Amino acid sequence: MRNSPSMKAPVLNRRFHRISLMLRLVSCVAMIAASISTAAGQNDHRTWKEYGGGPDNSKFVDLNQITKANVNKLTVAWEYPTRDAEPYLFNPIVVGNVMYVLARGNSLVALDATTGREIWIHAHLPGIGTRGISFWESKDHKDQRLIFQINHYIEEIDARTGKSILTFGDRGLVDLREGLSRAPETVTRIRSNTPGRVFENLIIMGSATGESYMSPPGDLRAYNVITGKMAWVFHTIPHPGEPGYETWPKDAWKYIGGTNTWGEITLDEKSGILYFPTGSPTYDMYGADRTGKNLYGDCLLAINARTGTLIWYFQDIHHDLWDYDLTSAPQLISIRHNGKEIQAVAQAGKDGFLYVFDRYTGKPVWPIEERLVPQSDVPGEHSWPTQPFPTAPPPFARQTLTANDIDPYLMTPEERAIWKKRVAGDNNQGLFTPPSATKETVEMPGARGGSNWGTTAANPDKGLVYVLTQDWPSFIPKVAERSLPRAGGQYGASATGKQIFTENCQSCHGTNRQGSAVAPALTDLFLKLNLDDFEQILKSGKGEMPAFSGLSSSNAEALYSWLVNPDNQHPQRPGASAAAISLDGPVVASGGAPGGLSTAGNPNAEAQKYGGNFAGPPYPKGVTAPPRMYSDYGLDFPYVVSPPWSSIVAYDLNSGTIKWKEPLGDDQVAAREGAKDSGVEEGGERRGIIVTSTGLLFVNCKDGKVRAFDAETGKVLWTTDLTTGTEGIPAMYEVNGREYLVVPASSPLKLGLGPNGAQTNPGTKQGYMVFALPN
């Protein structure tokens, strides 16, 4: 067909549109460059350009526009829809007047922080760390980088243009599997969802190693932000000749894993000291192959940020058998104690204790006593005879569960009688009762109780620390010996995952995972979700699917392993190709650096032949170890304990006392049965606090509300309802003289325990809600 004048116009229009779009992108890039440059040099605590608000992770903002007197006038300034059904836990960062968020199918998006207008989109980054990213800039402000972990790698994106920086590492990638005390091809899990911490020209990383026997070690590592070269490494499981080696069996570094920082890293920028909270060694519930204190598991480590040299440490759990990882951010505060000013650090634990030290020497501010604790009856186990107990401040969580503590609201009288009898007959000798070979064991707080990531904040100069906490008991099954499982073995991922699917998922998703009228097919799950995203959806729920909040990480991984590989063929799982992703808007790149989307290691690697989160491959040749034993976290019954289930606690560490403690919302199901101030179950994890210099605390809550508390009294001064649930840490910032509060709001909304407490609203707006005072 010959072109007519009327047919040429659309061609010209398309050309004009492309030119116009290019000009807008150039203009946007110029705006980012200007805004980032002007942001440099601003006073600490007046911006939110790092995860947790700043290097000290205090979530404290020194802004004075929003006060106790006007907080009730906050209104929605703008909102940014994520335009997908993902529950994002992302802590936005703001540099100048540019906000960076995760949205639109795990894409990194740059937004105008005053309007929510998209500036650029780097599309399709499945496997990116879900909690946040890091920001670095050169001294002359000409080089700005967004740094993140994705699958097995570290990558960087130009903060101005949104494009991958391919001069970093090996064509844009630094492989986190390299440089560990394991062959890289055997490392199948290493990336942490929590971002690293920037110091000078270094990015310092923790890791998430999994919970299995023979999991990777949690070495702490620093990399040059320009070259990607490793600058230093600290072995959390010491090698021969290193301090702490004597607290393990010989050559434990070759086969013990964990002892990792998967939680939050805090930096004292002035002194150049990093504070790392570390987790338990693996395997969690049985430690016969790791006799000893197990340094540096379950420690607060003070490390020289430039050299990786250990300055001091404190171990809060010796020879952990409870999965009592330290994960929440250590809080740096100035306090007055015995007439002297002390620069202190406070660390909250899953065990419900708050430990306080001189941050430079590690000396406890109040005495910490080693007390005798119950001992294990499991064959081969040598539980440690004592554990540390702070004499002050008092604990923020309940640490015992007796028959008198059984919930009076959510059970029938018959159920309550059964539970009272069960708890009375359990292995239940108080805090630090080790798992048993003969009885179920009560652990209180349980493995998901106390303080978790995101849940601590501070007013640094006033010595005030705030903690979100939840009371969630574990009922740990008997520890038993099992034969080493292959992937298809009786206790392997294939069998365990298939059983979980059959009992919980098959009725909706179909016997062959083909889907139904009420649930999608799962045959191509590996193209849509990585393990972390899958586990997040399982525990939060999605659409009409209820939340399986009590499902352990090991069982979530077993289910995922079976769904993506029911016939044990070990396929590669790279996710959908970058070329297959098509988004509208200012997309400047897709898929990150070449090769960064691959989540698979060597499909023939020995580690991948063994199923489940606990099993792991055999020990290396020459290692003599007792038979492996197994248990589980026992997290299926959070409602057994009476309310409150979640709370916010305020500490004055000048005196070592609790100022106040208030529940985090009300469980609506329990409220109908007469409960008051119950706190929402699961309300004390996966959320955060913002502390303001005007005396406010902003908290996003499990019940889909944002609350402003009076920091002095705990009184709720303002509450607003979100359109959906909320997870992740909020942020607060100022642009052009106006303050903004941004809250991630894309998770399913659950208003109470049990099926009657679930409230999902298909089609409701999901995204980032931004509040401000009216102009």
CATH topology call of the largest domain: Methanol Dehydrogenase, Chain A
The average pLDDT score comes to 87
Oligomer state of the chains in this structure:
single chain
The name of the CATH superfamily of the largest domain reads: Quinoprotein alcohol dehydrogenase-like superfamily
Strand percentage: 25-35%
Got a strand count?
41
In terms of structural class, how would the helical and strand content be classed?
alpha+beta
Cofactor: pyrroloquinoline quinone
Pfam families: Cytochrome_CBB3, PQQ
GO molecular function, one term: oxidoreductase activity
Biased composition (Polar residues): 429-439
Topology of helices and strands:
Blueprint: H1 5-39, E1 60-61, E2 75-81, E3 93-95, E4 98-103, E5 107-112, E6 118-123, E7 134-137, E8 144-150, E9 153-158, E10 174-175, E11 197-199, E12 202-205, E13 220-224, E14 230-234, E15 257-258, E16 266-268, E17 273-277, E18 281-282, E19 299-304, E20 310-315, E21 331-337, E22 340-348, E23 354-358, E24 368-372, E25 386-390, H2 413-425, E26 441-443, E27 456-459, E28 464-470, E29 474-476, E30 480-481, H3 493-504, H4 506-509, H5 525-528, H6 531-540, H7 553-564, E31 587-590, E32 629-630, E33 646-652, E34 657-663, H8 668-672, E35 689-692, E36 696-700, E37 705-710, E38 716-721, E39 731-735, E40 738-745, E41 767-772
Parallel strand pairs: 1-35, 6-31
Antiparallel strand pairs: 2-41, 3-4, 4-5, 5-6, 7-8, 8-9, 9-10, 11-12, 12-13, 13-14, 15-18, 16-17, 17-19, 19-20, 21-22, 22-23, 24-25, 26-29, 27-28, 28-33, 30-32, 33-34, 35-36, 36-37, 37-38, 39-40, 40-41
Helix pairs in contact: 3-7, 6-7
